[in-house]
Amino acid sequence: MNGAAWVMFLFGAIVLWGGLAYSLMLSFKAQNGKDESEESKSES
């Protein structure tokens, strides 16, 4: 692999795992605070 391929690979991995962690965090918050989750859904 050359430098550009490594950069694209690392960037893709960060975006992938970042999105996964973000979705898990949102679902975790929704389970903890059900009252807040209803308000956030109406805003988005």
Automatic annotation (TrEMBL):
Statement: the UniProt record of this protein carries the keyword Transmembrane: yes
Keywords, alphabetical: Membrane, Transmembrane, Transmembrane helix
Highest taxon of source: Bacteria
Transmembrane portions of the chain: 6-28
NCBIfam families xrefs: MetS_like_NSS
Protein name per the record: Methionine and alanine importer, small subunit
Lineage: Bacteria, Bacillati, Bacillota, Bacilli, Bacillales
